[in-house]
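Residues pack. Consider this:
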Amino acid sequence: MFKKEYLHPNEGFSQVVLIETEETKTLHISGQIGEGNDLESQTIATFKNLETLLKESNSSFQDVVKMNTYIVNFNPEVDLPIFRKVRKAFLGSENYPASTLVGVTVLGNRNWLIEIEATAVIDKKTV
């Protein structure tokens, strides 16, 4: 058996769906975006939004097991170093989660340059 909880519901989706069993909590975090004029500032704000949702669920980036990242008009030579620098500032330099990065032409709003979704698993025995 498991318990399912929907956190911060919006029109048509929830920011987080929490699945809880006796042993674990799994957080499925919807794609987060951030405000800013360029990719770096939006990436920092996006990671801060993810961090806020993780903390609200008594979790952290250490519990993240999977991240999917979408960057508009992705240019690997320019955008990847920016993304990696910001990610390292939030996640550290080891034990990265499984990760997918996809270049896209547009996101849900034309002003968004990046969107990141994440899955985190928390072992309730160590909490």
Notes: Helices lie at 39-56, 76-91. DSSP finds two helices and six strands in the chain.
